[in-house]
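Recall that a protein's primary structure is simply its ordered list of amino acids. Everything else, from secondary elements to tertiary packing, is in principle encoded there. The following example makes that idea concrete.
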Amino acid sequence: MIYNEVTHRGTGRKFWMTMVYGYNDQGLRRGLWQEIERISSQLSGPWTVMGDFNCVLNMEESDIIQQGTLVTEAQRHELTREFTKEKVKQALWAIDGNKSLRPDGYGSKVFKDYWGIVGEDVTKGILEYFQNG
């Protein structure tokens, strides 16, 4: 989990950003949820949590996971390539601006709209996460 305060360079407004990658094991994931709850109880102001929680929303998703599609060699290569600044931006731009809305209504669109201001900090945080865990 990466937890950072982000400051908008233009306005000076601040918000908290947490990036997570949940364990595949349900028992180990409980610690992640407890840590997120602990953080939320200590915060005031805007906060976004994003990442892969390794949870399914409904049984249909579970059936897909249980069937288990095999990864090809080309896909394995693509999945294990080093992350770059360009890939971070490309991944963010691939997300619908109205997806993953926070309780305050902000989604990925806010990052896209203010990329010139927050892009460097967001990219740095994401690359740090993938390079150092």
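Residues 115-132 form the longest helix (18 residues). The two ends are 8 Å apart (CA to CA).
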